[in-house]
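Entry 14. Structure prediction run on the chain below.
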Amino acid sequence: MSSHSISKSFLIIAIFLSSHLHAFPNVSTRPECSSGGWVVSADFLAWYASQEVASIYADVVTRFGVIPGSWGAPGFNFKWDYGFRIGAGSNLTYDQWDTTLSWTWFRTDAKHSIPFNPNATVGAEFFGAFLSFALENNDVLNTSESLSVRWSLLFNMFDWELGRGFWVSNDLSIRPFLGLKGGWIHQSIDATYDNLSVNSVATPNVGIEHLKNDFWGIGPSGGINTKWRVRDFGSHFFDLFGDFSAAEMWGTWSCSDVYSTSIPTTSSVNSKNSSLGALMCRGFVGIGWDADFRTKQSHFAAKLGYEMQIWFNQLRIATFQLQRLHNDLTLQGVTFNCRLDY
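Output returned:
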């Protein structure tokens, strides 16, 4: 399609919307009490973090006799953990807009271990340990007999929104909004390799590796909140909702990997900081309940549903096989939200 055709199509759409805009209801969804009032909210989060290839942190070779019998590549499974989101805002008098500022905090970790097996050897996948395992002071440090590792993730994010909710039919409302998202996601990995092999001979030496994948970013965000009214009981209501948003952020990643042994030796991977675009998408769907009280001088709303956030290309540490990773971080689980307009 030519640029002229695209421009003509946009012009037709603009003319149609301009001529029919008056046909769309513009009644605000704001409670009667809230003109110029304040808003506070609190969310309880029960989330599960997952990270693509997160990550093949070791390889385990099991031997039957002389010939290797199997090869395993264990990965991480985070556990369910809890977090919170708190916010405050105001229902503006200008054109019945509203604005909110919120902070989301979530922390989780995972611990794994590979126990000693006389018929198995453990090799490193993270680049710092692999460098040392490959060649260190002319001694080949190629395996260990056991491994314990802990992966921690800390999520801190701030969101500012400016939006306006209005009814598009008797029982369907939408709230488009624009805003700003900023914060950081810090990840750290601590691994201990026991009984290192030197020239294929087991020794009591221990290797310790510390990696970090620290991100911070800021950028514009936008989205739409939708609500379907199922039942109206006069002073309280039952709804279905779907909230969707995305953010384009300017982000910086700081990654490092330091491995040291009791021999002693040290190897490190010094990665230059990456300053790149960061994209995230969020969805939150479920059921809601609204209620007016104090003769409609206050309004309370609760939401319970499933929330998912996808942070694209979030994990960027270096591994032996893939070099620098570009793997997605997913946060998902149950979110329970309470909001008070007064």
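The chain has one domain: 32-341.
Filed with the rest of this week's runs.
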